[in-house]
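Weekly modeling sync, notes
Attendees: S.R. (lead), two postdocs, one rotation student

Agenda item 3: backlog of single-chain predictions. S.R. asked that every request posted to the team notebook include the full sequence so nobody has to chase files. The rotation student volunteered to paste the first one in as an example of the format we agreed on. Action items at the bottom.

Example entry:
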Amino acid sequence: MPDSSRLFLPRYVLTAYLLLIVYASLYPFSGWRDQGVAPDAFLFAPMPRYFTIFDIATNLVGYFPLGFLVVLVLHIPHRPWRAIALATLSAVLLSTMLEAVQTYLPSRVASNLDVICNTAGAFLGALVGARLAPVLLSERMRGLRAEWLAPGRHADLGMVLLGLWLLTQLNPALLLFGNGDLRADLGLGLAPFSAEGFRAMETAIVALNLIALGALTALIVRARIYAWAVVSFMVFLTLLAKALASALLFKPENYLVWLTPGAQDGLTIGMLVLLILPWLPRGLLAVLAVLLIGGAVLMVNLVPENPYHTANLPQWQQGQFLNFNGATGTVALLWPFGAMIWAASVRRLRKPADDAPQTQDMDKAS
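Predicted structure, as returned to the notebook:
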């Protein structure tokens, strides 16, 4: 019988996505003041005279997953339209509230068109969610979750961490795997640049993060013999995300500007070390994840600024992506600390017998 934690993943993903919507809607969280406009004035104002297809598409796409996830979480099998209605109503309330708060942010413009587009996106997502819910929440899918993932809610939270990891790589201003940069927030200075030193430190950042990602993945999957294949797929998705982000936000010809010699060395070293991870005890994997992520954060905050990377930043036309980049930058800042807390909690909750089922699973997989 699949374990009872199988249905927690949609809830955790929905919670994380709600936080991202709120953050992106209120970014950059500065300049708050009363502008002499009633918070609900935008609701009764004429429709905006100037808007772009990009803005409409962004609002539709941004709230589509919200409607989809709310329907999955509610899951009213015999009354799907009730779930669709509740998901749409939730989007209306959330969007209206956030637009009202934006009236106190000079950098943001509250818009009734945004509420309409957000609601439409959530409604479309809810329709798709209601259609797919019987499949995604079926006993077969639950069985696959129990077969592939470790039992307990920690595995579901771990999956959310992996998803957020991919999100962090969509910010082209960061080095490859360069999460946890606290220098701007703490007012720390930059070390002087040297080509040899930068390459060595970038190699260490990529390798440490990659091995830590493998350790986290091995803690999430049930049969850890599959961890190498899963983390290899994660690396592929990560590199693809980085290339797409660089092509869209820099210039198309700069889609591999992040793949420096140091990054290539780190990827090579990391993938070789990952070969031994499935055979390490779970407790050791948890400790390694904490230590490696902590070491990577330290290196990120010590590495000097790459002048070649800095030269490309002026080409970065954030424009319409400003709020998205702000959200991804914040997730990248916080992700290492959330991952270390998660890995430490796995270590604390681990029982001595936990490794026995894993060994059996590995034998079966062999």
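Discussion: group reviewed the output briefly. The chain is about 70% helix and 0% strand.
Action items: rotation student to repeat for the remaining queue; S.R. to check formatting next week.
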